[in-house]
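Sample 1 of the test manifest.
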Amino acid sequence: MNALKCRLMKLDNFTEIKNLAEHQLSSLCKDVRERILQVLSEKGGHLASNIGSVELTVALHRVFSSPTDKIIFDTSHQTYAHKILTGRNEQFPTIRQYQGLCGFASPKESAHDHFYAGHAGTALSLALGVAHARDLSGSDEYVIAVLGDAAFSCGLTLEALNNIPSSLSRFIIVLNDNNMFISESTGNINECLRNYVKQNKNALEAALKRIMPTKIPDTKISFFEHFGLNYIGIVDGHDVNALADAFNSAKNIQGPVLIHTTTTKGHGMPKAAEDPTLYHGVGCFDVKTGNLHKKAATSLTFPKIFGDYLTKMGQKDPDLVVITPAMPHGACLTDFFDTFPERSFDVGIAEGHAVTFAAGLAYQKKKNVVVSIYATFLQRALDNLFQDICLQELPVLLALDRGGLSPADGSTHHGIYDISFLQAMPGLVIVQPRDGDVLRDLMHSAFSYNRSVAIRYPNQTTHHSTDYTPTYRPLSKGEILKKGSKLAIVSLGHLSTLAFKLAEMLSQKGIDATIVDPIFVKPLDEELFFQLLEDHNHFVTIEEHAVNSGLGSILSFFFAKNQIKDVRLQMFGIPDKFIEHGDYQNLLKEIGLTAPQILEKLDIHEFFDRS
Amino acid sequence: MNALKCRLMKLDNFTEIKNLAEHQLSSLCKDVRERILQVLSEKGGHLASNIGSVELTVALHRVFSSPTDKIIFDTSHQTYAHKILTGRNEQFPTIRQYQGLCGFASPKESAHDHFYAGHAGTALSLALGVAHARDLSGSDEYVIAVLGDAAFSCGLTLEALNNIPSSLSRFIIVLNDNNMFISESTGNINECLRNYVKQNKNALEAALKRIMPTKIPDTKISFFEHFGLNYIGIVDGHDVNALADAFNSAKNIQGPVLIHTTTTKGHGMPKAAEDPTLYHGVGCFDVKTGNLHKKAATSLTFPKIFGDYLTKMGQKDPDLVVITPAMPHGACLTDFFDTFPERSFDVGIAEGHAVTFAAGLAYQKKKNVVVSIYATFLQRALDNLFQDICLQELPVLLALDRGGLSPADGSTHHGIYDISFLQAMPGLVIVQPRDGDVLRDLMHSAFSYNRSVAIRYPNQTTHHSTDYTPTYRPLSKGEILKKGSKLAIVSLGHLSTLAFKLAEMLSQKGIDATIVDPIFVKPLDEELFFQLLEDHNHFVTIEEHAVNSGLGSILSFFFAKNQIKDVRLQMFGIPDKFIEHGDYQNLLKEIGLTAPQILEKLDIHEFFDRS
């Protein structure tokens, strides 16, 4: 390992890649892959995509001159080799840790990372902008967009593809085709790619048999030809010299070029190549065997409880259908998908379509539709939610997974802005359960509200009862979890545990705080709050959401609207700045969402003035 | 006209279309077109698209059985003939008027209108959902999506296209190809369509010369083949019998079918066919000559003032570039586009791409980028704004046109939710100018803030000085427009005129109100508000935005955050329900945004208790 570290360290001046002999490139790839595996076996992280794109990355840096040439990675969870090769090998073991390297591209880290890009499908639009700016300014660097096959299921990529001028030169698209989205690949474009790969294989076999191969794939039928692209393919994505050759040829072609290269997600680690979905993102593992270390038995997470109960709902309700934009695994839907394949729709990375498609399925109540979507990705489907679901008054259930901090992923992935736009939608119900039981109550009740319902929950472990029979939760009914007086802590969802800690500390100071779980962010349980106002004059809101546009803001509006003046409202949540990645506890401390920090800021002297 | 009305009235039971002889269909089309022209000449509305799709609509109702068969119109501003033929001929003259027929499809109006669809690109996703629900439920109706060529520039359409199973039957896509977006057509897919049309024309000419035509277009190279679609084309979209034949053939094909039909936007009215952009949406006109009635000279609108000054900025700043998603005409950009074509980008109906593409152009400050986008369509680019602009800290200028009510268009088009999600974005500046001079000040100042700036303004006339030299507006500085005491009216943008009216009424009651223009919704001019709090204890906010998530809500949060308790805040804006179409004055009255209505609700008795 030390020898490896030394070899790679020398590459901190990565321009040396250009000076290596061809046969040395493969050794370099081996070293980089070993480094990734070594570090990830101890720290966890995105595995399969990163070890699958080592040769691709080395070849890019062999042929192009970053950062003058702009290499723009889509989604950018596959940039570990790129980070190692651009001066970040030393820091690489801090990947995804608090104040360490980001698991995605990060312009703050390096001039070689041009854009934040945790949400897939942006690379082509960005690259197109960079290339146009270059041409208007008269410089001549190459602009290279590196995309996976999954990105072509995303409307944003296709909009960009539609906008590439056939005259645009020094514009190179590298299609890293591993025939995998995060889960299984899907869609008609992917089907085209599979055909090209198959034809290519046939042609290779024919060539080996000394039969004259036809030009495969025939460019006349290439999907990409319709977009004015020159097509080079198919290149073996684990042959670093073949890749470098292809990139060099692309440099000399007039007009935009797409290089179609096939890679194996998880290449270089047999277990990961066998099950790339399992090894997409991993915890620690044995670097020799590839066996994942078993986690100590912990409580179940909200997504797991959601997924389990969803299958039960599916068993009772033959009209229940489930849609996911490429997240069956992460959102714990695999059980439902395996049990009810005909009622399961993985639409690819197509969040807008997922929501509008749901509207079609829910039309005239033919189907009871659940759209499972990460809170941060719902940002891509706001207009669809507005026009196709809310305006249409369709009772679709939106399951907003990863609502709250998404700690190790960081700024691109935190689901902390959703309430801001959801609350502006007339008729929409917004709820957040504090534990697995309330989650199941809400799932059980949602369709009976006969309105569109958004259930938001984080990827955190939580309490849940075994053999629980969910009960009906009436619309807009909050709950008092602990009755005190004067001071009421209003906590959103899982932060009720924080509320209890805070109440405990307050009780040590002789203050008997009330704890309220509103459950319904919208419509708010106004009756409950009016009732609380009878013997409380100090409200404290705690939420894992941008504080300026979440529960606290809604409560301040409620008080103002009802001209309630003699009340003190203190609001705790995510401050108005971007929050980076790290472990959950450190992030909570950074943003001030721990009991001691809140206690310190609580304006409670009046309790003592009066005593 | 009476005879025409009678003939059409009989068709209120539109199933009769099925019983007409073939030769009668053309007469029916003529009657419908005449009816549309007659009514629109007196009332205005979407003209060119509607008279261009008469034959298409008649043929659809000839062959399919609505509403059992589901005809789903994309964008749905071309549904006038459909409305006339499905029982709404009598009411047709009320189109786009207050409490009259909606200018788009409206499920509230008729069982033949399935979805609200003012925002383009949703039809295919919706139809796909309806078709899957049908198959899961075992019924056998046809599902027909009717799309323009412009819809294929929209990522949502392409996401849906990627998700059509090749096994899906009784699923028919009608591509109404008029080679026009609202303005000029654009993009690579459109280029493909143009080639097919050209090849088809060549083949027809060859056939006329008795030369054997090749099968045109060769299905092997059809763009749509990649999506598993059967392709029928090209059908003359003004030959109602040819269309009916094509629809009948499509009925019998296994798997999904796309029918490519060409129409002329504005067909049947020479002036409209010549300039379909001008005649896309019109005011009154002479039905015989087609001449548009000249409007009385009025003040300029915010969009016009914006467009004029943008050209001036472009003259001074060679790095200024402008992007629009298909709205150069509506957003008054044509002058800039004509003057600086190389710095003008119309990306088609691709709002997400427009914003992410802007990020690429603005990268490393190579270009000063203006994205002009309607407030309601920005809902399609929230995630792009979040990740690609705000997180990246790029100083892009977003010009949010149609911010506020979009009266005649109605519920799908009001730009009244944008502040809700914009204010959650860290670092973003949100401003709204009260008149044409402040608008130009803000445009002049925006890039110097070195942050992303959203300027929101309505499509209303406003004051502007001629030969005005814009002055620099410091970041976060509001303005007191009239100094009074105790009661402060805080009006957003153009509603300052309403604030002055209200102040005038208050002054008649002996109350000397202050009028404040915050200009900056974010960051709020906190200093100004603290200063106002010294001699004001009653604040009234007035805004053309959803009241629960706009300026009033932001002010309530500000007061709570700063523990300002002895203040009364009354917030007036758009209530939490969907607002339909109508004229501006009636809509304002409906939502209570007129001076007498606000006055009535103002809690001002305290002023008199004290006197």
